[in-house]
């Protein structure tokens, strides 16, 4: 069992930045660690993922160049730095994880562990 706890959400004007944090307990750098988001009426979608040990990083096309996923193994944490935020980025953001042999699944149903979510609201 891996417990995930997100923080860092909030309200920000369009064009602004936020950094989300997720602490994993226990933390396995061989796991895939990912950020998903879900807006009302939409499916949960992966925005970024990382396998720290394999040094593999994935981004959805909609966030490439604007979001950066990173980890701090000493802090047992994964981060999502979000910049140039758009109205469409508004959603509940979730941290998720699954055991990995070096890659990350795209679909939410393959992720074993989930945090409680943190709300991001981008306003005009």
Summarize the structure.
With 124 residues, the protein is mostly beta strands.
Features:
mainly beta, 124 residues, 4-stranded antiparallel β-sheet, 11 strands, 7-stranded mixed β-sheet
Q: What report would you give on this structure?
A:
- The protein is mostly beta strands and 124 residues long.
- The protein is built from no helices and 11 strands.
- It has strands at residues 3-7, 10-13, 18-25, 32-38, 45-51, 56-59, 67-72, 77-82, 91-98, 113-114, 118-123.
- Strands 2, 4, 5, 6, 9, 10 and 11 form a 7-stranded mixed β-sheet that branches.
- 34% of the residues are buried.
- The mean pLDDT is 97.
Largest sheet: 7 strands, mixed
Helix content: under 10%
Flag low-confidence runs. Answer: none
Q: Mind telling me the C-alpha Rg?
A: 13 Å
* Number of helical segments with 4 or more residues: 0
> In what range is the share of β-strand residues?
over 45%
The total beta strand count reads 11
The helix-and-strand class reads mainly beta
Write the layout of secondary structure elements.
Blueprint (H helix, E strand, L loop, with lengths): L2 E5 L2 E4 L4 E8 L6 E7 L6 E7 L4 E4 L7 E6 L4 E6 L8 E8 L14 E2 L3 E6 L1
Parallel strand pairs: 2-11
Antiparallel strand pairs: 1-3, 3-8, 4-5, 4-9, 5-6, 7-8, 9-10, 9-11
